[in-house]
Amino acid sequence: MSKILIIDDERSIRRALREILEFENFEVHEAENGKEGWEKIQSTTYDIIFCDIKMPLMDGMEVLDEIQKAKIDVPVIMISGHGNIETAVDAIKKGAFDFIEKPLDLNRILVTIRNAKDRLFLVEETKSLKSTVKKFKGSSIIGETEGIVKIKEMIEKVAPSDARVLITGGNGTGKELVARSLHDNSNRRKMAFVEVNCAAIPSELIESELFGHEKGAFTSAIKDKKGKFELASGGTLFLDEIGDMSASAQAKVLRALQENVIQRVGGERDIKVDCRVVAATNKDLRKEIEEGRFREDLFHRLAVILIHVPSLNDRKDDIPLLAEHFLTMVCAEHGVGRKSFLDSALNQLKVTDWTGNIRELRNIIERLVILCGQEISGDDVKMFANPKA
Fold first, then answer.
1. Residues whose CB is less than 8 angstroms from the CB of residue 320 and which lie 6 or more positions away in sequence, other chains included
2. HSE-CB for 6 with a 13 A CA cutoff
3. CATH architecture assignment, domain 137-310
């Protein structure tokens, strides 16, 4: 449910706007002057703000200035009964999303809100795309060995459904790439792909990260925060290294999967969510279940479809394709001319023991690009890749 703040010193305006917005299923907060409004903005996350210009204590333009200084990314719709073209232009120049004159027109309000929500979606999508391009520039599932072909076929079959998928495999094998491919080939591809690395978040913070928290839920909770389940609603939530999740978080994730509702930390209100959950782990979850560290009921909820990503040592015939792919990518990233592998280099890469899997291969290719000449030889690989044979 989108949260809207109305800042206006006229009670009748606040009441009229509230009735309109609540009828459209928005959660509405009010402030009767700019000072109170700015305090609310600092403590609560809003999706849209309506702000009057002429107010006591702190006028609307001052509130807008403070929002811009604090770099709070929220559409601010300025409203005024004393407006003119110059005022409107000044407000837009200062960063307002739109300017509406009083008396307020219902249709204009609803159209402006719709446009503001569209803009928010585009901003989030752009951030997600930039992050994806930065992390996965030129990436795809590279390989022609039997195991990789089977994974590609499985993605093609499973992606269009909303079935939950559990991806297994060692560190650096490309589990996240499989998860992204599932999302990119699904009906949810236009919505967000949200990733949570369960192993990287302290156990005491994982619930807040997943489910969000209410203001005051704990000492540092100075404002409401949406969790990853809410942010991924409509899209895909990728729970990486789920085998490292705490027992209490496992119980809450199970409820979210069963009922499609969550509760923020410190909150009592149920929030409906609609996200496809894809999980990944490098652990043997059946063994974790036997030893009491992972819930069996959660395992069965997550493992509707199982995809195992083979280690690089089990798909060495793909190494020449992967090496050429990473060579092109790394040369472009470092702004150097295209280098090349001699056959001896590719052969040497194939006899290397890749304990770090594809991640290690990519790092070695980068090392070779930086330290070697135009043609990379087998001796270069021996020197820098620490081969087993």
1. 346, 349, 350
2. 23
3. 3-Layer(aba) Sandwich (3.40)
Instruction: Collapse the DSSP code of 318 into the 3-class scheme (helix H, G, I; strand E, B; otherwise coil) and give the result.
Output: helix
Burial letters 86-111, b for 16+ CB under 10 A, else e: ebbebbeeeebbbbbbeeeeeeebee
Q: What is the CATH code for 313-385?
A: 1.10.8.60
Identify residue 80 by its one-letter amino acid code. Answer: S
Mean pLDDT of 129-158: 77
- Write the pLDDT tens digit of every residue in 283-314: 999 999 999 999 999 999 999 999 999 999 99
CA dist list (Å): 155 to 140, 161, 178, 333, 345: 13, 10, 8, 29, 32
The backbone region for 373, taken as left when phi is positive above 0, alpha when psi lies in -120 to 50, beta otherwise, is beta
The tokens 């290294």 sit on which residue? 241
CA distance 140 to 326: 11
What is the Cα 156 distance to its own chain's centre? 23
pLDDT tens for each residue of 235-284:
999 999 999 998 889 999 999 999 999 999 888 889 999 999 999 999 99
Domain 3-120 belongs in CATH node 2.60.120.1440: no
